[in-house]
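Appendix B, Record 12. Input sequence as logged:
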Amino acid sequence: MAITAERFAQGMTYDEYKAQMTRNQERFVANEQGVQLDPADVAAFKDLPQPLNVLVLAEDWCGDVINNLPVLGRLAEASGKLNLRIFLRDQHLDLMDQYLKEGQYRSIPVFVFFDPQFHELGHFIERPASVSERQAQIRRDLSAQHPEFGPPDAPIAQLPEEARTQLMQAIATQREATKAQDNQDVVRDLRAIATGSRA
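Logged structural output:
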């Protein structure tokens, strides 16, 4: 099903999305304030020949949304060339199911870039592969140092409560250290879609 201008217009603006959040709003705002944009990246978006429409699928409970949507929001604000409309995933499964990760997972966030005539330019799902690899490496390192955290591929939810809490805190601390690089990788992927260059 094609996305029309009418359907796109039904989404929330970035500010409306933030205002309706019931969870993780403080983390979202803190992440937004921490985003450092490279002037060259901002210039690449400012130099786009025409503004682009970006359809976003998100939910406020999702860590990848809390990490990556603020990057897009700051890019939109700094460049003036991205028109964002945000849809809650669970209320818009017809949209979500057009952008399944690996054809089967309802992973979010999803950022879909369209030109002014709503021809799709490309889309971003969840997080860059480089960020996934860094996160996997963090888990492997922590499991090697702390046997109580179980093997790196063990679901965190299946750990005893104390180990689960300690692991989650350790992961959060480690991810904080890679956040600047993670954000840069998100910008790189979004810039490639917006400018049509897979650099």
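The chain has two domains: 5-127+180-195, 131-169.
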